[in-house]
Amino acid sequence: MQFATALVHAGREDLHRLGVHALPIDLSTTYPVADLDIGTQSFDALVGGAAAAENPIYARLFNPTVARFEQAIAALETTEAAVAFGSGMAAVSACLLAARQRGEEVLAVRPLYGTSDHLLRSGLLGVRVRFVDVEQIAASITPDTGLVFIETPANPNLDLIDIADVVRQAGDVPVLVDSTFATPVLQQPATLGAALVLHSATKFLGGHGDVIAGVVCCNEAHAATLRQVRAATGGLLHPLAAYLLHRGLPTLQLRVERAQANAQVLAQRLQSHARIERVMYPGLDTVKNSHLRHTQMRGPGSLMSFDVHGGYEAAVQVLKSLHLMTVAVSLGSVDTLIQHPAGLTHRVVATGDLALMGIGPGTLRLSVGIEDADDLWADLCQALHA
After folding, report:
1. Are residues 313 and 352 in the same domain?
2. Residues of the domain holding 310
């Protein structure tokens, strides 16, 4: 199937057999065990990381509604499997725990989402992190390196990283790519060699601000380990959230492309606005490796950051003066969201490190929605003039 068709039909292969058109929701927490031998065999299989078993046993081990969503997103990311979690950070945590089987060190390239950065630095999961420049990955690999972790486009400065080059440098060390900003509409890291593709499904995949979720797309071997972690730690995605995510996939490309078109308009206008110091957006060639939007990606996306003249006080005044845009964390919703990275999403990152990432006191991150571009621009203009 072509991508647009897969968005509509992937993960729905069993609906005809079930005799339904809309996705069903299975809310069962437990499943009757009519045959104990089958039950024990199913339990062993699911705890061991199997994708399914004859008896689901217990919802912490398997849920058919969640499995349908996993099948759908795996098809969109061109991977053998996907494993869904109760949040993006639960998905990150599972990847870090699974990586410890290989080694306790993680190489990471900044910037990352602030909480990912914080989790790596905290040592809470027993991993050690070394933050390196992307050019230093090959030279930094040691026998104890269990994972290479990158995010592209980066949060919040929108720098792009050459995934294929990172995979080459990493050698046989798995590469985890947080592809939340791009979605499979604009980027498919697995086709470039990434072992693990991470999405905070709360964002574009959900798209309506009503789901918290995470998902990792990968091969079956990695998926089996991630399922073991999920079963042991209880990180399963709730079936109602899985239903909402799966229901929203058919419109993902329409939403992403409309928001991207709006973002291109706003970025160009912001760049020439007298009260803006700089705009960070791949479509303007104002970020690192912006050329990758033509090769690695299928467009620059709908996220951007910009610095307001006047620093923190001016940024706060802009946020207070907006009427249409919502001042809130998160991103990828149908409505436009704006937030202050240093004060919110990246507040857990040290001030000195923020500066190295290009995040200043006057930096605002804008997640452009699908509203009318002129209405969004009018709101931004009046706020900037305030």
Report:
1. yes
2. 252-385
Residues 94-149 have pLDDT tens digits of 999 999 999 999 999 999 999 999 999 999 999 999 999 999 999 999 999 999 99
Tokens at residue 158, please? 């929108």
178 is catalytic: yes
- Backbone φ and ψ for 215, nearest 5 degrees, come out as -150, 145
- Please tell me which residue in 162, 165, 178, 307 is annotated as part of the active site: 178
Same-domain pairing of 150 and 137:
yes
Question: Is 102 considered catalytic here?
Answer: no
The whole model's pTM is what? 0.96
Burial class (CB in 10 A: 0-12, 13-18, 19+), 313: exposed
Catalytic residue among 60, 100, 121, 247: 60
In a shared domain, residues 297 and 210: no
The residue annotated as part of the active site, out of 12, 68, 110, 113, is: 113
